[in-house]
Amino acid sequence: MCATDLSKAFDKVNHHALFIKLMKRNIPVQLLHIVENLFTGCLTSIKWFDTWSTEFMIEFGVRQGSVLSPFLFAILVDDIAALDNFTCKFHVVLYADDILLFTPTVTGLEKLLHACERELLWLDMSVNFKKSCCLRIGPRCDIGCAEIVSLSGQVIPWTNEMRYLGVHIIKSRVFRCSLPPLVSLLPPGLPPRTFACTVSSELLGF
């Protein structure tokens, strides 16, 4: 499996790519015009102490704090989830700008990563390889394997533990994850313990 993170995802949303994705979903023309007007002609300036810069155009990104922004971003990257292939046992878990890739082989993992990179390239986005890593699960988890190399030549390191959405996933013969934040929810007086869940790799299709 491979956990990837997108570089400044919400700040680098390409408006034209977003509009194309919305049109592919056949949203009403009137609604499309509203979204276009929301992002067209936006100006901003920078304040440094008591000095303001000249205004400049905002050409990328979605508005921070807007309730609409997460939905628009989800529509933009939704085609990455379509890379799921149950025949080849390729699986993609997508939450905002955090992507988790599952395949039964190292070669398949690299192919799925490359497919994600090509889709992101079309969206004018990129993977933050400094925050990305790979982890092996299954009977051969302790055996060394080939490096995962991106289309740009970046090597994604193998690790013994990764964190995805606050959950720690551990290298082991079966799928294991720990949920340390749940310890803080224990009633007073109960001894703390390590919360862990174990999922057979057969359930994941491996």
Characterization of this structure:
The chain is α+β, with helices and mostly antiparallel strands. Helices cover 25% and strands 21% of the residues. It contains four helices and 14 strands. The chain has helices spanning 15-24, 29-39, 69-81, 106-122, and strands at 2-5, 43-44, 47-48, 51-52, 56-57, 91-95, 98-102, 133-134, 148-149, 155-156, 161-164, 167-170, 175-178, 196-199. The protein has a four-stranded antiparallel beta sheet, with helices on one face. The protein has a four-stranded antiparallel beta sheet with strand order 11-12-13-14, with no helix packed on it. The chain has a two-stranded antiparallel ribbon with strand order 2-5. A hairpin with a 2-residue loop joins strand 11 (161-164) and strand 12 (167-170). Helix 1 packs across helix 3 (69-81).
Main features:
single chain; 206 residues; four-stranded antiparallel beta sheet
Trace the largest sheet across and list its strands: 6-7-1-8
Low-confidence stretches: 192-196, 198-204
Average pLDDT works out at 83
In one word, what is the shape?
globular
Mind summarizing the main beta sheet? 4 strands, antiparallel
| Structural class determined from secondary elements | alpha+beta
Number of helices: 4
Order of helices and strands: EHHEEEEHEEHEEEEEEE
Number of strands: 14
Distance between the termini: 11 Å
Indicate the percent of residues in helices.
10-25%
Sequence-ordered SSE layout with sheet pairings:
Elements: E1 2-5, H1 15-24, H2 29-39, E2 43-44, E3 47-48, E4 51-52, E5 56-57, H3 69-81, E6 91-95, E7 98-102, H4 106-122, E8 133-134, E9 148-149, E10 155-156, E11 161-164, E12 167-170, E13 175-178, E14 196-199
Antiparallel strand pairs: 1-7, 1-8, 2-5, 3-4, 6-7, 9-10, 11-12, 12-13, 13-14
Helix pairs in contact: 1-2, 1-3
